[in-house]
Amino acid sequence: MTSTGSGNSFAALRRFTRERAGARAEQCDFCSAVLAGSHQHLIEPERRRLVCVCDACAVLFSGQGETKYRRVLRRALFLPDFQLTDAQWHNLMIPIQLAFIFHNSPAQRMIALYPSPAGPVESSLELAAWDEIAAANPALKKMEPDVEALLINRVGRAGHISRGGSGEHEYYVAPIDECFRLTGLLRAHWRGLSGGAQVWEEIARFFASLRARAVVNQKESCA
């Protein structure tokens, strides 16, 4: 497991957080237009770097052509029928109960990241382990490379790890900027060895907000 180069994304995420806290108005990184409180992002897949943009600039990157940046989709899907056994989870070799997995085009492979107090950390991901999970969950085959990820929440309430019953587990196809925002929340609010109460409250609020706006994915046949 290694630290990633995703630290560049935190510059955008810090602005994202400040603006929600009522700080000075942010500007588009391309045209300098003033951004609304909730604005769009591009990602630079090569460096995994997020860029804050206005709607007009975001539209320029909506196509499938070869460009340095890709527009981050804003849709979020809640996957209530997601199939993931404890054995499959352990095969992913992710040491905590929060993670997101996405296809990185420059690397031409699936990448698993998990939040830590030092920022996002990359975990080794065996293709066979991912293929088994994807085969059981057709929604994963429709994820857009670079800009969407499988977001996994196996943390129980108030930071207690869920050890039984899938009721505490949540799975989403989420925008990649939201996944990095979750990582930023953990990094910003973690205190001591266990994280402290505040970080788990922030994580709970994050998932409550995501759940409220997510579309429930309809169950599909795996055939």
Structure description:
The protein is an alpha+beta fold and 223 residues long. It is built from 6 helices and 11 strands. Strands 1-8-7-6-9-10-5-11 form an 8-stranded mixed β-sheet. α1 (9-20) crosses α5. The longest helix is centred in the C-terminal third of the chain and has 18 residues, at 196-213. The radius of gyration is 17 Å and the shape is globular. Mean pLDDT is 85; it is low at 158-166.
Short account of what is shown:
With 223 residues, the chain is α+β, with helices and mostly antiparallel strands. Helix content is 29%, strand content 21%.
Distance between the termini: 34 Å
How many DSSP-defined strands?
Answer: 11
* Portion in beta strands: 15-25%
Instruction: Find the structural class using helix and strand composition.
Output: alpha+beta
Q: H/E order of the elements?
A: EHEEHEEHEEEHEEHHE
Largest sheet descriptor? 8 strands, mixed
* Gyration radius, in Å: 17 Å
**Quaternary organisation of the protein chains:** single chain
Strand neighbour order, sheet with most strands? 1-8-7-6-9-10-5-11
Mean pLDDT metric? 85
